[in-house]
Amino acid sequence: MAGALVSASTGAMGSLLGKLGAMLTDEYKMLKNVRGDIKFLKDELEVMNAFLLKMSDVEDADEPTKLRVTAVREMSYKIEDNIDKFMVLVVDRESCSPEARGIRKLIDKCNSLLPDVKTRHKIAKEVKDIKNQLKEVSDRFLRYKTDESSSLPAKDKVDPRLRAVYKDATDLVGINGPREELVKWLNEEEGESLRFVSIVGYGGLGRTTLATQIRANLGIGANFECGAFVSISRKPDMKAILKSILSQICKQDSSCSGLDDVQLIIDKIRESLQDRRYFIIIDDIWELGTWETLKCAFVKNKCGSRIMITTRIVDVAKSCSPSNEDLVYEMKPLSEADSKKLFFKRIFGCEESCPDSLKEASKEILKKCGGLPLAINAISSLLATTRETKEEWDRVRHSIRSSKSKNDIIETMNYILSLSYFDLPHHLRSCILYLALFPEDELIERQRLVRRWISEGFIHGESEQDLMELGEEYFHELVNRSLIQPERIGYDGKVWNCRVHDTILDFLIAKSSEENLCTVLKKQCKPDGIVRRLSLMGTEDEEILEQLDLSHARSIGAFGDIKRLPPLGKSKSLRVLDLQDCSKLKNHHIKDIERLYQLRYLDISFTGIKELPKQIGELQYLETLIAFYDLCELPESTSRLRRLARLFVGPDCKLPDGLGNLVNLQELECIDALQLKHVEELGKLANLRKLKISWRTDGIEGNKLVQSKEKLVSALCKLDECGLCSLSIDYFSGEKDGEGPFLPALGCIHEVCVYGQGIFWIIRWLPSLRNLHKLYFADPKKIEQQDIEMIGLIPNLLELSLRLEIDYTPRLVIRCEGFQQLQSFGVSGARMGDLMFEPGAMPRIKELKLLSFQEKPKSDAGDFDFGIQYLSSLGCLTVSLFCVDSTAAEVKAAEDAFKSMAEANPNRPTLMMTREFPECVLQDEQIDMAGSGTTQEKEESA
């Protein structure tokens, strides 16, 4: 059902309503009375869904309401499990192989319609049972009906963020640097025009505290004639906020008397600010509409006025500071030193007073806090009231989120984090809670997460909408809201990986447990209730693992060195089985998975599993199969997986005949195309949108090679005509490959990776590829200036990476004529003097990477002036220095030189510099020994 609303709070209700609607269509031939019962279920569940949605926004529901919500939500899962069983029966009859369908027709002729009638009667009985259970749930709560208003908080609570406004500066740690930098920004004279500064960061980093300290530092009265400080709620009362601003700038409450119209209040504020230098702080803005309204009240005078905004949302911060002269400051966690200082100050007064027996435990606790001031304050306040024993401290570390303590700061931490959660739209709540299944500090790959969301049914788009693209929008929205920490951000702004801050992860685990979305097993602790989604991390008690009832489980994910899995045969509701990187698992661990008829997602990549069951074709709902590098061969029955949309295998994996039967395949990676037995089958995959192939001619001789190439070219041309969006080619050059271009200039070719030394003819072919975006060369024997200039002619090249062989690399000059669209340039293995940028070169370059850079020149003529200052759009310069056989002075000189180059660039790019093999830097005594040895050798030769 397109656009179905999926939320953690509504359970399976969104997708279930879509399925019930489908069962009422003519496609499903139901008995007459069954259709009536299904219509009843659908109508009843729509009302229940509305109830769940309403209650999902109540942050502090009473116990009767919580019980009712849980019962209705769990009922939706149970009904969907049954509906899915019915649908399997229909799919099994319709999607079996043509040969099987022929046999089925013969059986039907012999047995009339008896099997179909039996199936429909079975469904009728099950639907009756569901209907009765639904009535029982409704009747039960009618008997104990309570006023829904009791679900709301009895009284307004004081916003705990208010305390940050009155924080004593002597209690603060790590604030001096950010405060001084922001004060400098605010004090910079820019024609005395109105200037905006935004502070952005996730909840608990101390944005409000920082803003308050800046306000105190600048001083209302000394530097500004008037000012105001207002905090914004998730559902702001704009009239009250504007009145607060007006009363603060006029310094009298009576200024708001008689003003009940928002426009009149705005007019009064503008009149009061017209000729005055003002400083206003708008704290914790949640959405742009609020800012657009408030902005109307602020006069753009020439008095040097300043406005500071704090927010958790990156897009809001950028929109509030839109011009080039306005600034966005990204809050960072406290450093390790400042974290220690704050932690020990609150408990012992200073670090030196901490008992030795607690220092190891304190290190683990601080790691868990991850530099988040709110978490450090909360946990240190709790520890200050406990006994000073390691056991007690360990208990606090492991149970901080579930602590029954009435510690006020703990409640504040919960409140701050829940604000961000309840501000999410419903469809993102399931997505963020799903992250509770991943371990602490886990680097979570974006596409892996999105594929799992899709298989769980969390992503619902309009007809023909690409679910991967929609899921990636969801992912980046969570990054934008500062709920997940981005890792490896590309030049295009896309985030490749993310992590979840430990404190936020604890909140998600607690919240997902409350919603019964995810279960994270703890040692010697069996979960209460039904397990819906299970995360295994290798620390589980084996006996408990054996006792788990996974008959209702929809997802099982395993991590690390896990050696065993719970029995899978009875997990008939399982949608997702993710075993990626569990290297100690073997073939027997996935025995019976062909019985998991609801399975949508299977990942066995980088495990010890080398074979799939021969009956894998029974999994008619399977959408994603990932088996990188370990799998030797796909079973023949794989060609029956009609719903398979994404297939990822290693280039050495043998594919089955009948590849063309996978009519819904959208992504295929990575196949050794010339080794395919029936390469023409590729051309039948009309829905394919992304394809990655490996082109290897080794082992194919003479006429057979010519025929394979012709068939492959024909298949790829057909795919190009059918709308293939992205073709990636890993090309391994060999001795037989110098005769000329191996493919026509297809519009779908987006990426080419060339491995080997014979690159001359392929370079002449590349400029004809109008849509080539990524190009990578690994260890070309020799690359000349004319080669670089030829590559520069590729019209739409966005990324270029060169891994050079040092002995064969001449001086390469990047001229202004080429690379007009290039945004990312990476060079590995270069030395000083290998590279030079002329003025005007690479006008759109955003990212320059110099990896394994050797600071020693080939000759004395080398220097550090690469011309980096001419790269006018450069935003990020990444350098890793290769330290082997270099002296400490040489490495330091190289680092200083790169710092100078970055500072000389007018765009002031971010510089990220690391050392490779720092342990191999030559020490002074090694240099002395090498020098004396040389002298001795000279004396002996003399």
From TrEMBL:
SUPFAM superfamilies: P-loop containing nucleoside triphosphate hydrolases (SSF52540), RNI-like (SSF52047)
One Pfam family hit: LRR_14
Keywords linked to the UniProt accession: Coiled coil, Leucine-rich repeat, Nucleotide-binding, Plant defense, Repeat
Domain Disease resistance protein winged helix: 437-507
GO molecular function, one term: ADP binding
Signal sequence, renumbered to the chain: none
UniProt keyword Isomerase, yes or no: no
Ranges where the Disease resistance R13L4/SHOC-2-like LRR domain occurs: 552-911
GO biological process, one term: defense response to bacterium
Source species taxonomy: Eukaryota, Viridiplantae, Streptophyta, Embryophyta, Tracheophyta
Domain Disease resistance N-terminal: 12-95
Listed InterPro entries: Apaf_helical, Disease_R_plants, LRR_dom_sf, LRR_R13L4/SHOC2-like, NB-ARC, P-loop_NTPase, RX-like_CC, Rx_N
Family membership: Belongs to the disease resistance NB-LRR family.
Tagged with keyword Zinc-finger: no
Species this chain originates from: Lolium multiflorum (Italian ryegrass)
Domain (NB-ARC) ranges: 180-347
The name this protein goes by in its record: Uncharacterized protein
